[in-house]
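Q: Could you fold this chain for me?
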Amino acid sequence: MAIDGNATTVKDELRQSFEEARAAFYRVLDRIEDWQWNLPSANAKWSIGATFAHICGGLGTVPLRMTSAREGKPKQWMPRFVFDFVNTMLSRKLGRQYDRTSIRRYFDEQYAAAVAQLEEVKDSEWDLVSRTYIQKWTVRELFAYQPAHIAEHLESITSVL
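A: Sure. Below is the predicted structure, expressed as C-alpha cells.
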C-alpha cells in the first residue's frame, strides 16, 4: 500500500487496509474450533490462541506509540532481548486467558482504539517519529504496519490448519 499523498488519501487507504485486516482476523477466527486454540501455530513460540492474543496486543500498543510520536519522547524503550521475552510471555499468558469468544471482544476493543487514533492524526503528524519498545517508526509507518502485522500472524495460524 502506498502511504504517500495527502492526509485524506492516506487515511482512506489505511482505513481500507484496517478493514481488510479485521475481516481476515474474523475469517480465521471463525475457521478454528475450540479444541484447536492451544495447538501450536507455525511460530514455535506461540499456540494459535497466543498468536491471536499477540495480534490484539499489537493493536493495543498504538495509543502509546502515538503518545511517543506526539511528545517526541521514547516510551518503554528496552533492549531487544527484554522486548522479545516480554512479548513472548505476555502473548502466551493472554492466549491462556482468552478463548475464541473473548478474544473477539478483545480484538474489537483494540481495533476500535487503533482506528480512533488513526482518525485523530493531523496532516502535520504523519512524519512524527514514535520510539516505543524497540521500534522507531513514523506515524505513517506505524499505521501501515498494523494490517501487515495482522496478516503475518494470521498466516502462522492458517498454515497449520
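A (continued): Helices lie at 7-31, 48-60, 62-71, 80-97, 100-120, 139-158.
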